[in-house]
Specification:
Layout (H helix, E strand, L loop, with lengths): L4 E3 L2 H10 L25 E8 L11 E3 L2 E5 L4 E6 L2 E7 L4 E7 L3 E6 L3 E6 L5 E6 L9 E2 L3 E5 L5 E5 L5 E5 L6 E3 L6 E3 L2 E6 L3 E6 L5 E6 L15 E7 L3 E6 L2 E7 L5 E7 L5 E3 L3 E5 L5 E5 L5 E5 L11 E3 L2 E5 L4 E6 L5 E6 L10 E3 L3 E5 L4 E7 L1
Antiparallel strand pairs: 1-15, 2-34, 3-4, 4-5, 5-6, 7-8, 8-9, 9-10, 11-12, 12-13, 13-14, 16-17, 17-18, 18-19, 20-21, 21-22, 22-23, 24-25, 25-26, 26-27, 28-29, 29-30, 30-31, 32-33, 33-34
């Protein structure tokens, strides 16, 4: 284990953190992060541009990419729209922010530590509306043309009108006593919002009224203690043309037929950051910081890259013929998609890459570091 839990009961949370030093990847008594392996780069990981915003603090801020624009936010309240490395606009949305940015190119939406959701005009940064939801928000809101879906830290989904911010519906389901402190968001797909839940469940709710449309089981909690039974879906679910895939902590990775919900395959796995997939492969960062590629149609092993152990890797991102991951020292690693060998490496800055890398154009991607570096790369 390497990433901390949140307990729905504070006392249980404190007991967990005090009793298990391996929850802290930098604990002095624990195993040390692997040294960076030497290799000969086969491609250039070329920086297209870079910019800077404030630090993330104790939160994870996800950049949003819409066309050639990158929207980013920071804990100090700053929100900005960048293009070609220059700020189109920068505003201060609040004294403190806890999540962002979600954008559809019309709105840029963030959440404050006071439990407010703030929608800004994507064109100029002007505030469009502000809605109090009375709950902590850790994940970037999902923004559609008619609705903004916010996930609170207690796993409620809240649908807000995209034009006014008025509350349209709330979806809530029972959750286990313990769960990961997750920064995973929600995927909007057609008429539904799809989210992973504690207890190994994938759930889709109607964007029209918040009613549950279906539920799928990625993993079933096992074990004698509540800690052993933590089996939360990690990261944002991945939806392809015909498949819906997800991975659970201390559970399984699974893909389902998106048309009928039938399981295509599943296998034992544990991840707290999530997965990505393309037409051929499912790629997962596991809790030992090994990156795995599985056959997308069968779940069979294709390759495993395990020389970055304990480097606290990010969620992986498939970019063309490569897989990109960031680590706790700010390094960005590019692996060959076909065999997992190293293709290139660069250092964004000296702070960790905890946000998910985001696609940028056809062959590029964006990373945001904890110190606020916004870096756009392309493999050539």
């Amino acid at each position: 284990m390497k990433r901390p839990f949140t307990a729905l009961a504070l006392a249980a949370s404190l007991a967990l953190l005090a009793g298990c030093s391996s929850l802290n990847p930098f604990a002095e008594s624990g195993p040390k992060p692997a040294k960076l392996p030497d290799f000969k780069a086969s491609v250039e990981l070329r920086p297209l541009w870079q910019a800077r915003i404030g630090k993330s603090g104790p939160y994870v801020f996800q950049p949003a990419v819409v066309g050639e624009d990158v929207y980013a936010a920071a804990h100090d309240g700053a929100v900005a729209r960048f293009k070609d490395g220059k700020a189109v606009w920068t505003v201060n949305a609040a004294k403190r922010l806890s999540a962002g940015v979600g954008s559809n190119g019309k709105l840029a939406v963030v959440a404050t530590t006071a439990g407010e959701v703030v929608a800004l005009d994507a064109a100029n940064g002007a505030e469009r509306w502000r809605a109090a939801i009375g709950a902590e928000v850790l994940a970037a809101p999902a923004v559609g043309d008619a609705i903004v879906v916010v996930r609170s830290s207690d796993s409620r989904l809240i649908g807000l009108d995209a034009a006014t911010g008025s509350r349209k519906w709330v979806f809530q389901r029972a959750t286990p006593p313990l769960s990961l402190r997750s920064f995973a968001g929600v995927t909007l797909e057609g008429p539904a919002a799809v989210a992973g839940y504690p207890g190994g469940k994938l759930v889709a709710v109607s964007l029209a009224n918040g009613g549950q449309l279906w539920e799928l089981t990625v993993a079933t909690p096992k074990g004698a203690t509540e800690l052993e039974r933590v089996a939360d879906v990690a990261g944002t679910p991945v939806i392809g043309r015909k498949e819906l895939c997800a991975v659970a902590y201390q559970g399984r990775a699974a893909c389902f037929d998106a048309t009928n919900g039938n399981a295509l395959w599943s296998r034992d796995f544990s991840s707290s950051v999530g997965m990505d997939r393309d037409s051929r492969f499912v790629v997962i960062t596991d809790d030992n910081d090994a990156v795995h590629a599985l056959d997308g149609s069968s779940g069979a092993n294709v390759w495993k890259q395990d020389t970055l152990a304990r480097r606290v890797l990010s969620r992986p991102l498939i970019v063309g013929d490569f897989v990109a991951v960031g680590d706790f020292e700010g390094y960005v690693h590019l692996l060959k998609r076909e065999d997992g060998s190293f293709a290139a490496r660069t250092r964004a800055d000296s702070s960790s890459v905890t946000a998910d890398p985001r696609r940028f154009g056809r062959d590029g991607f964006v990373v945001q570091t904890r110190d606020g570096g916004i870096h756009v790369y392309e493999a050539r």
